Amino acid sequence: MIKKFTKFCVTLVQKYLPDPYxxxxxxxxxxxxxxxxxxxxxxxxxxxHWGNGFWSLLAFAMQMAxxxxxxxxxxxxxxxxxxxxxIAGAMKxxxxxxxxxxxxxxxxxxxxxxxxxxxxxxxxxEMARKVKGLDYPLVIAAGYIGFMVxxxxxxxxxxxxxxxxxxxxxxxxxxxxxxxxIFAMFNVIPIILLMITLPILTKSMMPDxxxxxxxxxxxxxxxxxxxxxxxxxxxxxxxxxxxxxxxxITGLLGMVYIVWxxxxxxxxxxxxxxxxxxxxxxxxxxxTPRKFLDALTLAAKGTGGIILQFPFYAGIMGMMTQSGLxxxxxxxxxxxxxxxxxxLFSFLSAGLVNLFVPSGGGQWAVQxxxxxxxxxxxxxxxxxxxxxxxxxxxxxxxxxPFWALPALGIAGLNARDIMGYCVVAMLFGGVIIGLCLMFx
Length: 440
Prior knowledge:
By secondary structure, this protein is mainly alpha-helical.
């Protein structure tokens, strides 16, 4: 039954889901029209909201491009290739490969969302290279499905924000420690359940043998740099580029900072420190500047989608927040809630808003002033309301190409290749998460 439903979803997505760029453009038109009809903004107002927000994610877009480039460059280094190859080589069959990829992606995403996005995709690609009979789109989807848990983990922007002094709602709700959010039972139990069930679900989605889309392992091997120049004919510039000394010195500087960072700040990962770690490990592991630069150039080819699409989503966010659309959507869910269903409807409303505002911090800024007072009036704790929004934000990432772009860039696939599988995972995960938020 699951296999038939998966086949239906895959076929539907393959047929109707446009390229992620066109998906962003269509969402832009939809939000524009909703702003006119529901939020009662004028066409000029909606254009201004869109234009004012268009470049608001430039710094974040650069961070995401570096996640892809530094992660890909690190993965192509000899030591990292051996590590991923050893994991993939230990798999005895496609079922093991699929399930292991999901588990690793969940753990990595729980530790840090940027780390999870890259590690899941890199391991999936290596699995496809090493394990015979593996469906390539499905294993890449498996590497992305683990991302469903990120906002309930150590890098969750909402629980970390409300646990930090100076957040914008501190005067209303005070400081909410992570013991009441990230480590609360209503948050831990769904993670455990998803860790157990998502690998089994993903395995059950494996297509029949005659429908498997395998890929030639040779196509997954990054092209190597040109042959090393003969030392006798090298110019001074060539010798510098092919000497490991500069890479060792540069890499050592980076590692000193990394050691200082973890020694003074603990295991506190953010996107900048993840990129910093990936970058300087890649410099060290590639051995020479020339090998590192060749790998970096190859990795950068996958960043086009991020560079083009993130400004469009920033424009959509501008229209959603400045027009009042996000607030209207949130208020509608509040109006039909009671103390039992409020966490569920907070989760669902966050999932809907996330399709148009794919940013945890941005979504919290829009929904928190509405959902937190409403939850308090119904007797729902601030921590429960906050994590319901956090789970909703992460949940619909399964069908939001915005977050899949780094994984797709690494894999060399289009969103429609993996989103059919992600739809099944999203529906399944939504049931587990929703029930846990309601009854725990």
